[in-house]
Amino acid sequence: xxxxxxxxxxxxxxxxxxxxxxxxxxxxxxxxxxxxxxxxxxxxxxxxxxxxxxxxxxxxxxxxxxxxxxxxxxxxxxxxxxxxxxxxxxxxxxxxxxxxxxxxxxxxxxxxxxxxxxxxxxxxxxxxxxxxxxxxxxxxxxxxxxxxxxxxxxxxxxxxxxxxxxxxxxxxxxxxxxxxxxxxxxxxxxxxxxxxxxxxxxxxxxxxxxxxxxxxxxxxxxxxxxxxxxxxxxxxxxxxxxxxxxxxxxxxxxxxxxxxxxxxxxxxxxxxxxxxxxxxxxxxxxxxxxxxxxxxxxxxxxxxxxxxxxxxxxxxxxxxxxxx
Length: 324
Known about the structure:
Layout: E1 2-5, H1 8-12, E2 14-16, H2 20-31, H3 41-51, H4 57-62, H5 83-91, H6 95-99, H7 115-119, H8 121-140, H9 144-174, E3 178-181, E4 184-187, E5 194-197, E6 203-208, E7 216-219, E8 224-229, H10 247-252, H11 254-262, E9 267-268, H12 269-276, H13 280-292, E10 296-301, E11 304-309, H14 311-318
Parallel strand pairs: 1-5, 2-6, 6-8
Antiparallel strand pairs: 1-4, 3-4, 7-8, 9-11, 10-11
Helix pairs in contact: 3-8, 5-8, 12-13
């Protein structure tokens, strides 16, 4: 068990942010079959051919499940940051920050492919970060808008839970391995017996798709963070149900019916266009009509505008509501 002792300032600094590096790191475990391979099979089928030309030996070895993950792959995270922002923090890690991951390994146990990172981090870290960038562009960037939609839907739920029930209800709903009582947050992990006083930096909670069913914790001095599975993961890769011959399609048209069906999670114009095989301009035109009729609404999440069904739109999709 890892026990985090929270002070008054820490309780005031419990907050949320998405982390591109968190998703990248967790996706490696999925790609190597260590977790969630069946759940994320559509993504794996997409990613493997796109990654075929990359030598991922260093990345796979560095994220060996037996040794956890290195702290430098869990960079300080601020709301609204991009992958490039976080990659620059990784790239700026000093030699000691890289080597500390290997301190628990006997020198003879360090795999040969990882020894350059331990022996000469200044020379090896740059090429490794270039590899991370290539991995991101090939495997994560094509689905990033969809992951962001999942994150946003989760954060809406968590905000409502926090408002309605406070921290106790928030943590009770977050993950089965989290317990909160008496200003202590307990992470029930086997083979751990650690108590950490947070000392005013608060706790950052990071929703993730690829982490399911696990969670991650990094209790550094600059930031204490916990990655947890975002709600709604089961429907992340689901295709919209066919709408061609439904009453909804007869009422609003096939294209707009398909858009409403896809908006089970908040999605961007670009993502909707990709899924429907049309241009973003066409999607925008249909969304404008749906929004005028109070069937969808939009909100900004960082640099992206996300669309979601209104209760009226959801009722139409279910078939229990009709237009006047």
